[in-house]
Amino acid sequence: MIKKRKIPTRRCVVTNEMKPKKELIRIVRNKEGEVFVDPTGKKNGRGAYLSKDIAVIDQAEKTNVLNKHLNATVDAAIFTELRELVAGANDEK
After folding, report:
1. 39, 28 Cβ separation under 8 angstroms
2. C-alpha distances in Å from residue 69, one per residue of 33, 35, 88
3. Residue 88 pLDDT more than 60?
4. Neighbours of 5 (CB within 10 A)
5. What is the pLDDT of residues 17-73, one digit of tens each?
6. What span, in angstroms and rounded, lies between the C-alpha atoms of 93 and 86?
7. Rounded Cα gap, residues 36 and 53, in angstroms
8. Which DSSP helix (H) or strand (E) runs through 83?
9. Can you point out the beta strands (E) in the chain?
10. Strand locations in 2-83, DSSP E?
11. Parallel, antiparallel, or unpaired: how do β-strands 9-11 and 18-20 relate?
12. By the 8 A CB rule, do 18 and 11 touch?
C-alpha cells in the first residue's frame, strides 16, 4: 500500500477558499513590521495568503484586507509585485 502525502492547504484571505499552498501567494509581516511577498512560503513572520488571481489581488487592495490580517500598512508596491508575480506565473502555463 502506497501512502499518499498530505497536501498542505491554506485559506485565501479574500475568497476564504481552502487551496493547496502551492496555488497561493504568501505575504508576510516580520517582527520589524516590514511587509513583503514571500514566494518561498517559509519566511518567519505573520503570513496571509492570496489566490494567484489578478481579480483577487485587486479586491485585496480595495478592501485593505491585508492591512487587517497583518496588522500593518501594506504598501502599494506590494500589490504591484503580486500582480507581476501572477502575470509571470500565467506566462509559464
Report:
1. no
2. 13, 12, 26
3. yes
4. 5
5. 999 999 999 999 999 999 999 988 899 999 999 999 999 999 999 999 999 999 999
6. 11
7. 18
8. helix 76-92
9. 9-11, 18-20, 24-29, 35-38, 46-51
10. 9-11, 18-20, 24-29, 35-38, 46-51
11. antiparallel
12. yes
**Which one-letter amino acid corresponds to residue 85?**
L
Packing angle, helices 76-92 and 54-63, rounded to 10: 170
For residues 29 and 1, what is the distance between their CA atoms, to the nearest angstrom? 42
Task: Determine the Cα angle at 85 with ends 22 and 32, to 5°.
Answer: 85
Cell of 19: 487551496
Question: In this structure, are residues 64 and 13 in contact, taking their beta carbons and an 8 Å threshold?
Answer: no
Say what the pLDDT of residue 75 is: 93
Return the half-sphere exposure (C-beta side, CA atoms, 13 A cut-off) of residue 33.
3
Residue with cell 507581476: 84
